[in-house]
Amino acid sequence: MVAMLLEDMLNQLGCHVVEAAARVDTALKAVESRIFDVAILDVNLKGETSYPVADLLCLRNVPFLFATGYGIQAIPEPYRQRIVLQKPFRKHELEEALLSALK
Amino acid sequence: MSPKVPETPLEGENQFQLLADFVPQLMWLADRDGWIYWYNKRCYEYTGTTPEEIEGWGWKAVIEPEALPAVVEGWSRSIATGEPFEMVIPLKSADESFRPFLSRVQPLKDDDGNVLRWFGTNTDISEQKLVEERLQNLLNELNHRVKNTLVTVQAIASQSLRTLPRENIETFHDRLVALSRAHDLLMQTNWEAMELREIVRQTLAPLCSKQPCDRLVIDGPEVLIAADRAASWSMAIHELCMNALKHGAFKLETGQVNIAWLVPEEGRLRFRWSEHGGPPVAVSQRRGFGTRLIENLGRELAGKATLLFEPEGLICTIDAEAHLAPGRSS
Fold it and tell me: Measured between beta carbons, which residues in chain B are less than 8 angstroms from residue A70?
């Protein structure tokens, strides 16, 4: 449901969603196999954190941002410097976050 | 009544020596300059060191290196000022692992206030720290779940309200996000009291990011708002701001909003939101949700909220109960 909402917002912003991964391992595979401009990472994926995905994206120089229900203080230091979107968010906030990630 | 002494003292028993050695804390004594000249047995047992190794300032070797500068700074300050010392310090045990200790040091002073000795105890608080950590994790989990529930509500609404006018849906989303931001405020303070200025600032930040600062003036003393009321304040301020953006002072570039509060007497707070320079005010005949929410806030806060649609702009006053930040008033 949450992913669906995000997908709708992204479509409305004129983005094309190439993949929505619900688990860390599928996300890692998607990063390896897909071509895309930017990734949005939910910090908590079915009980796992998405930091390994963030590390891989960093390594490949692909821009990304976090979307989280945790407060920023619950995000460990190296990742805290990244763009963090607090859930729930509005479409225009998502747009701004995407634009600054792509800068 | 004199204190009861055990009937059969141990051979050669020195009550105080026994106390010092077997009390569960690490204890020590220092001279007026902070030079530690005596430790109890527990200190040597826990750290696995010899008296020569840790006497004076030798204890620095058993402090976690990262914590050491702050410990030395704090302890030096106490020695210089004669003030008691208190800090949580990770201490290295004989097996090389670190455990957190609550370190407390009291000075013994002569009649002129000069320090004669320092008495220190270190208490192992690793159990408490673990409990604290677990609580923090639980709190994080709770926040995460609350947020995800709100996102789910947002998703359901998006699907179910598609046929409604766009503006209504937008307002719904705005309010839902405002409620969530109010929740963020509580999260930041671990559900404890929060400063009114912070509530105002953080509620307005996402809405007014494009407004030049001179269009919004915030002025008032430090006032703490209890956690259970912070969300109501945040929602009320959100409604006022949304109203200003849609119909009031923030609609025109000439418009300005003044937010001011004062403490007319202890425990009371008078909050005032006033707009000017906006479009001419038309009194809304319909009492909208925003108006009701604000009026209701007044009641919730054991006070009263009034909305005045003056020709030059809306004025909202909220009289409420409040706690002043300790040690500050103005």
Answer: 140, 143-144, 147
Residue A86 with chain B: CB contacts under 8 Å: 147, 180-181, 184
Q: What is the pLDDT of residues B83-99, one digit of tens each?
A: 999 999 999 999 999 99
Query: B65 vs B27, B61, B70, B235, CA distance in Å?
Result: 21, 8, 10, 46
Enumerate the H helices of A1-103 as residue ranges. Answer: 2-12, 24-33, 51-59, 77-80, 91-102
DSSP string computed for B13-56: --HHHHHHHHSSSEEEEEETTS-EEEE-HHHHHHHT--HHHHTB
The interface pTM score, or ipTM, of the predicted complex is 0.77
* The Cα angle at residue B232 between residues B226 and B235, in degrees rounded to 5: 135
Return the structure tokens found at B251: 């609609």
CB B306 within 8 A of CB B297: no
Provide the terminal-to-terminal Cα distance of chain B, rounded to the nearest Å. 52
Cis peptide bond upstream of B90, omega within 30: no
Give me the mean pLDDT over the B262-286 stretch. 83
- Give backbone dihedrals phi and psi of B148, rounded to 5 degrees, phi first: -65, -35
The three-class DSSP label of residue B254 is: coil
Collect all residues with Cβ–Cβ distance below 8 Å to B193 and sequence separation of at least 6.
B224, B225, B226, B227, B230, B323
Contact call for A71 and B187, based on CB within 8 A: yes
Tokens representing residue B174 in the block: 């705005």
